[in-house]
Amino acid sequence: MLKSLQMKLVLILMLLVISVMAVVGIFLVNSVTAYNISDFKQQMADFFALRGGEVETGLRACDGDPQAMTQVMEAYAGGLGLDDHRNFYILDGRTGEFLASSQGRDETPFRELTPNMTAAMGGRTGQEITALAPYFDVALPLDGGAYVLAVVDDKGELDELTWTMFTILLRSLMFGLAVAAMLSFILAKTITNPVENLTKTADRIAAGDFSQRPQEESADEIGALTRTFNDMANVLESTLAEVNGERNKLNTLFMYMAEGMVAFGKNGRILHMNPAAQRMLGLEFGPELTYTQVFPNMEIEEADLAEDGKCIEIDYAANKRILKIFLTLFGGADSENGGIMAVMHDVTEQTKLDSSRREFVANVSHELRTPLTNVKGYTETLLDAGDDIDPQSRRDFLQVIYNESDRMTHIVKDLLTLSQLDYGRMDLRLAELPVEMIVANITSAMMIEAKNQGLTLETSFQRPLPNILADQARLEQVIANVISNAVKYNRSGGRVEVSAFSEGGQVAVRVKDTGIGIPQEDIPRLFERFYRVDKARSRERGGTGLGLAIAKEIVEQHNGTIEVESQLDQGTVVTIRIPAAPAPEEEA
Ligand code: ADP
User: Fold this and answer.
1) What's the CA-to-centroid distance between 438 and ligand 1, angstroms?
2) From atom 13 of ligand 1, which residue's Cα is the shortest distance away?
3) Which residue has the least CA distance to atom 23 on ligand 1?
4) Could you tell me which residues are beta bridge partners of residue 327?
5) What is the distance in A from the centroid of ligand 1 to the CA of 472?
6) How far apart are CA 9 and CA 11, in angstroms?
7) Could you say which of 58, 152, 361, 494 is the most buried, measured as most Cβ atoms within 10 Å of its Cβ?
8) How far is the CA of 515 from the centre of ligand 1 (A)?
C-alpha cells in the first residue's frame, strides 16, 4: 500500500501540513511568551517608575504590620495588574520571611525565595525572567532593604492562552490534514492515472497486443512520457511486424525447402526439424528427441565443431538413404541460446546414378574390349602367319574378325539408340498401325530361325484389334527383340507363342516361351543396361544385354508398359502394352 505513488504523495503532503503547523505553533507560543514577558517587565517598570516612591512611603508607614501592608498594596492592585495569577509578596528584607501577600486572591500562595527575591534581599532590583521558568517575577528592596516587594505571576493566563492557541492550531491541523489528504489524493490521481494507463498499455504490448495506445492528453512531463512511449510502441510494432515477416519467410523456407534441417539446443535437445529432414531420417518431430537419437551413428562431438567453429561435412547413412550432412554451431559457442544446426542433402539418387554411370562405363569398356581383343588377336595371327596359313583357317579367322566387328557395331548401334532415347533426341514418327500386321511380319521373319532351333513359333490374335499410334520401326525393334529372346533362351522342341489382344484401352502383345526361364531375383534387373542372366549364352547368340533396356525406353516413350513374368526352367512371359489409337469418328 505504502509503495504506491498515491499513498506516498498523501503521506508527504500530510507530513508537510503537520510540520508547517508545528513550526507555526512553536513560533506563536514563543512569540506570545516573549510578548508576555516583555509586557510584564514593561508594566512593572512603568508602575515602579511612577508609583515606586508612593508605595515605599505607604509601606514604611505600616511599620511592619502585614495587614496594613496588604491594604496599601491592594490599593495598587490595578496598576500592578493583580489577579488570580498575579500576586504581590512582601518579605522581610533580611530574613526572607513572607510577611504579607495578596490575600484571598492568592489561591496557591508562593512561599519560596526566587532568584529575583534573593537579589532584592541583596539590595538590587531582581528582574531576571527566563522563558522556561514556571513564573514571571520582579523583586525590589524597599525601605533601605528592610522589606522586599515581589510581584509574581504564575503564568496562568499565558498557559490558558497557549492552550487556547494549541486547540485552535489542533483544529486547523485537522482541517488542514483533511484538505491536504483530499488535495494530495486528487493530485496523486492526476499523476498516477496516466502512469497506470501507461503501465496497462505496456503490459498489453508485452503480451503482443498493439491495438491500443494511451492518450497524449497533457503537455507536461507525463504527456511527454506518453508521447515517447507511443513513439516507442510504434517503432516496436513495425520492427516486430518486420521480424514476423522475416520469420514467416524463414518458416516457409524451412517447411518447403528440399534440404533437411535439424537444430539442437545446447543440452542436445531438438529445437526444430523440417518435414524434409523428417522424411530423410524417417523420424517424426517430437520435443523429447535428442541429438544422439536423431543421429545415433554420428561420430562427431560438439567439441569437434567448437574447435574451429567451422562447418563439418559428413556422409551419413540412415533410413536406407545416403545423406550429406553439414554440421555447424549457431549462436556462438558461449551463447546460452546457441546450439547445433544440421543441414542435410539427400544424395541417395545421385550416388546411385554415379555408381550406375560408373558401372555403365565399366560395362561398355568390358563389352568392347572382348571383341577388340579377339579382332586384334586374330589379325595379329593372320599377319604373323603371312602365306603360311591354309585357306580354310584364314577364312575361319576372318569370319571371327567379321563376327566380332559385327558385335561391336551392334553394341555401338544399341548404345547410340539408348543415348538418343536418354536425351529425348529420338523423334517418334507416330502413325496408326495395325498390330497384327506388325507381329505377323516379325514372326514370319523369325520362323526360319525358330525352325532351325527346333522350336514352334505360333501366333494368335484377337479380332478385331484396335490400331495403335506408334513409330513402326521402333515398335518392330521392341517386339523383334522380345521374340528373339524367346527363341534365343529356349530349348530344342520348345514353343514360342505370340498373341495380341486388347485390354482396358490398350493393345497387348504377349510373347510366351517354354525356355530356360529367369530366376526371380534377376527379373527386376532385366531392364538394366548390360544386365544379362546367362552371359555366355547371350554373348554366343550375339546379345548385347541392351535389348530389354532399349525396349523399355521405347515402350515408355509410347506411354506403354513392358512386364516380365518367369519361372526358372519353365518359361517366360513378356507382355508389352501400348495405348490403343482413338477410334476414328464415324462419318455422318
Ligand atoms: P540380350 O541382348 O542379352 O538378350 P536383353 O536385354 O534382351 O539382352 O535381355 C537381358 C537378359 O535377360 C538376357 O541376357 C537373358 O539372360 C535374359 N532374358 C531375356 N529374355 C529372356 C527369355 N525369354 N528367357 C530367358 N531369359 C531371358
Assistant:
1) 22
2) 532
3) 486
4) 312, 342
5) 23
6) 5
7) 152
8) 11
Which cell numbers in the block locate residue 159? 498557559
Contact 580, 507 (CB under 8 A): yes
* Planar angle of CA 387, 389, 390, nearest 5 degrees: 115
Pocket test for ligand 1, best of 363, 487, 538 (most atoms within 8 A of CB): 538
Ligand 1 pocket test: which of 478, 489, 516, 570 has the largest number of ligand atoms within 8 Å of its C-beta?
489
Site to substitute for ligand 1 among 485, 509, 529, 568, most atoms within 8 A of C-beta: 485
* Sign of the CA dihedral with 219 first, then 221, 222, and 223 last: positive
Q: What is the structure's pLDDT at 588?
A: 41
Ligand 1: list residues with CB < 6 Å. 481, 485-486, 489, 513, 515-518, 526, 531-534, 538, 543-549, 572
Residue 24 grid coordinates: 507555526
For residue 276, which amino acid is it? A
| pLDDT score at 2 | 55
As a three-state string, the secondary structure of 488-524 is HCCCCCCEEEEEEEEECCEEEEEEEECCCCCCHHHHH
Mean pLDDT (10-residue bins), the chain, 588 residues: 72 88 89 89 90 87 85 88 86 87 65 88 88 86 88 86 90 89 82 84 88 79 87 91 93 92 89 93 90 84 66 88 90 74 93 89 89 94 89 93 92 90 84 94 93 94 94 95 94 95 95 95 92 81 87 95 96 96 65
Expressed in angstroms and rounded, the spacing between residue 517 Cα and the centre of ligand 1 is: 10
Atom of ligand 1 nearest to the CA of 516: 25
The DSSP element (H or E) to which 265 belongs, if any, is strand 260-265
- Joined grid coordinates for residue 230: 507511443
Place of cell 506518453: 226
Measured in whole angstroms, the distance separating CA 183 from the mean position of its chain's CA atoms is 48
CA of 321 to the centre of ligand 1 (A): 31
Q: Is 542 left (phi over 0), alpha (psi -120 to 50) or beta?
A: left
Number of neighbouring beta carbons within 10 Å of residue 422: 10
Distance separating alpha carbons of residues 130 and 135, to the nearest angstrom: 9
pLDDT confidence of residue 498:
97
| pLDDT for residue 585 | 63
CA of 359 to the centre of ligand 1 (A): 19
